[in-house]
Structure formats: structure tokens, C-alpha cells
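Data card: per-record layout.
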Amino acid sequence: MSEELFIPIDAGKREKYESLLPQIEALITGEPNLIANLANISAALKEAFGWWWVGFYWVRNNELVLGPFQGPIACTRIKIGKGVCGTAWETAQSILVPDVEKFPGHIACSSSSVSEIVVPVFDKSRQVVGVLDVDSERYDVLDETDVEFLEKLSEMITLLL
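The structure for this 161-residue chain is written out next.
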């Protein structure tokens, strides 16, 4: 396992993902501990893209509970259907929010976060077991390319379960 990521500095977003995802796959392959894998995935994404916050919430006792993440402190528990994370869990669909102020019921864990993507993580029976949450302090950073590749990453995590 490499302890360093190679992220092409001058590459576009798609090229960064195409470089990063195989490295993440190599990093998590053979490691049976889910928490360790989620922590490394969070760190790799934050390092590669410099987002404000990136991490996971995991379904526990009918609510989302904060899991491994990188960034400032965050909301610890989220109910189903509440905020972007709870809505992605409830609908089992990825949600891209270019401006969180325009998302009804947005939960403001940090006033610095202005845009967000949440991608569900499924178990092998296609039940949502968690979500991958990405927040940016800029409006022009997150887009459909992120959704596409974060969904691929979510599929990798499903294989670990």
C-alpha cells in the first residue's frame, strides 16, 4: 500500500478522478476494517480536491451518525429526510446542491459551506447504509463530474461491505 497519492497538478477534474480512483481502490483492497477505509477515502478526496469538508454518515438506529471525515467539526446525527444528507438517504439518490441556501431544510453544520454533494452508499442488497457528503466553501466547484465519480467510489465501498 502506498502512503502517498499521486495527483496530477495541472490535470482537469476528470483526469484527477481517473488517477485517484484506482489509487483509492488499491488503498482499500485487502483492508477489512471499514472505518480505516472510510477515513483514508475521506483524506484522499480532501487532499486531491481541497474541499471544505468530506466524509461519511452511517445509518445507525434509524438515523445518520457521523463517521470518518476530514474538515471542521460537523453535525453528529441527522434524521431521515432532513437536510441534504437525510434526503439523499430517504430518496436513495445522489443530490448536487450548487447553493445550499436554495435547498429547503438545509442543515447548516458550518456557515462556510455554500455548496454540497451527497451520494448514497448501498449495501449489496441495494439498501442505503450511509452517505458520502462533500461540502465546498465555493459555489463554482461541485458539479455533475463529481457526482459521476463519487457514485463510482460509492460502488467501490459497496464491495467492501
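Known properties of this structure: The mean pLDDT is 92. Strands lie at 53-60, 63-70, 77-78, 95-97, 115-122, 128-136.

See the next section for split statistics.
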